[in-house]
Amino acid sequence: MRSLFVGTVVLAFTAGAPVAWAASDTGPTVAEELLDIVRAAGIIDDAKYEELRERAQQEHKQRVEEAVREAVAVAEAAKPVPTSSEPEPAPTDWTATWNNGFKVERNDGAFKLSFGGRVQNDWALIDESNELEESIGGEGNGTEFRRAYLFFEGTVYDRLILKSQFDLASTGSGTVTFRDVYMGLKDLGPIGTAWVGHKKEPFSLEELTSDKYLTFLERGLPNVFAPSRNTGLMAANTAFDEKLLWGFGIFHDANGDGFGFDDNSAWNVTGRVAATPFYADDGARVVHLGVGFSHEFRGGDFAQSYQQRPESHLAAKFLDTEDIPTDDINLLGVEFATVMGPASFQAEYMHSWVEGRHSPDTDFWGAYAQASFFLTGEHRNYTLDQRTFGRVKPGKNFNPQRGDWGAWEIAARFSYLDLEDQVAEGGKMWDVTAALNWYLYPNARVMLNYIHSHVADRVVVGTPLLQGVDGDADILQARFQFDF
After folding, report:
1. DSSP classification of residue 51
2. Which of 111, 224, 330, 423 could staple 353 via S-S, CB 3.0–4.6 A?
3. Cα angle value 354/355/361 (rounded, 5°)
């Protein structure tokens, strides 16, 4: 009989716990009263009483928490789904961004446009030896806007490439001149990409590298041989798993405005092959090899001349071959460059063979070698699409309040040019250049160059007995540059 009583009490206690304990804060609950009766009857002792009471409280608490969670889940599921006030962008919508320049792109990628420009303000102090100053001139100091470009470029309808670039500074002439003005088509199978218009011929690593990204203010002395920009038709593509880039074009010799119409048949056939046998760490380690060749068809009464300044645009032209009656010209360029983290090395050799008309053939040559090192740990940016060098991005942009001073680079270069052979007495020149570059931001930098230039055997028409001129020049120059 006693067992039946105990079982009844326990069953009543367990079944009634969820309800009984819910009212515990208003007085004794049913479960408490049942436990009190059982303890008073001596069926359980005090220890058992406390154990059963604590278990009932825990089970009640768990059931309440589960009930609350279920109620919250039901309430959340019953909430109306909010609708966005802004619809999803359509594929034909446009997005404008800034990425070191202004860019506008349609969401489906079929139209990608950018526009901007660059400004380069140069200052120079030039000191020449007496012999050089008296025979050639050019000593002094001053400033110029080396370049002031505006451009618009992009890709439309997935394949059509457009670019128009103009120089507002035009080396002090006060006129606007062409730079890159062309159209093209990409994804043409084995042809790759084809262009027609006014652009650089595929020749020379340093010439094809934009002046925005050069290590020094001016290109090396052998650059006098590079054809640079002319008007023509060109194609380029990659091969061997993109380890090699080739470019080939036919160009008509044109002036700065893209005009080239005469009876001299001045045509150039130019090609370049550039290979990257080693490329690692997103371009932090690179080996570059390249070779370029150009055959320039000349005829009629065409005359070739080569003139070159020291590596400062504000200096005078220290070398000059004068006019050489010419039939054809062959140009060869050999390139080498390597980047190993913050250190880099670059060199080129160029040669020009001029076939004389009613005069001996002449050949001229030049070479340069340069090295640079980033004191702040950055590296030169090698671009695989062009096999040239591109924009340097500081690890930390200039912000003196945080102790950030941008990127700093030191560099040195030796370059040599020989424009003396046969009837040509243009002279010889070598330059030693030291550089310090401060990259405040990816699109703003300050450059400082010191150049020591030596000229030998330059014959200047009009001087007594056509004696060769020997002399030296020391040049200190700076550039303040930004692009957008």
Report:
1. H
2. 330
3. 85
CA distance 70 to 76: 10
Q: Average pLDDT of 23-35? A: 62
Nearest-5° angle of CA 136, CA 141, CA 146? 90
Contact assessment for residue 169 and residue 146, using Cβ atoms and an 8 Å cutoff: yes
CA 322 to chain centre: 39
**Model confidence pLDDT, tens digit, residues 171-211:** 566 678 889 999 999 999 999 999 999 999 999 999 999 99
Q: Return d(Cα 28, Cα 49) in angstroms, integer.
A: 15
Tell me the mean pLDDT in the region 418-438.
95
CA–CA separation, 313 vs 143, rounded Å? Answer: 10
Phi, psi angle pair for 111, to nearest 5°: -130, 120
Burial (0-12, 13-18, 19+ Cβ within 10 Å), 39:
middle
What is the per-residue pLDDT for 464? 53
CA 358 from chain center: how many Å?
A: 48
Residues 6 or more apart whose CB falls under 8 angstroms from that of 258 comprise 178, 181, 197, 198, 231
Single pTM value for the model: 0.79
Does 17 have pLDDT greater than 60? Answer: no
Q: How many CB atoms lie within 10 A of CB 334?
A: 16
Residue 62 confidence class, pLDDT cut points 50, 70, 90: confident
The C-alpha atoms of residue 171 and residue 148 are separated, in whole angstroms, by 9
Residue 403's pLDDT is: 95
The answer to whether the CB of 148 falls within 8 A of the CB of 172 is no
Residue carrying the six token digits 């243009």: 426
For residue 96, count CB atoms less than 10 angstroms from its CB and return exposed for 0-12, middle for 13-18, buried for 19 or more: exposed
Cross-strand partners of 448 = 436, 478
**Alpha-carbon gap, residue 429 to 55, rounded angstroms:** 101
Position 22 scores a pLDDT of 42
Torsion angle of the four alpha carbons 397, 442, 309, 298, in this order, in degrees rounded to the nearest 10: 170
- Reported confidence tier of residue 80, pLDDT bands at 50, 70, 90: confident
Helical H runs in 151-218?
205-208
Return d(Cα 207, Cα 338) in angstroms, integer: 17
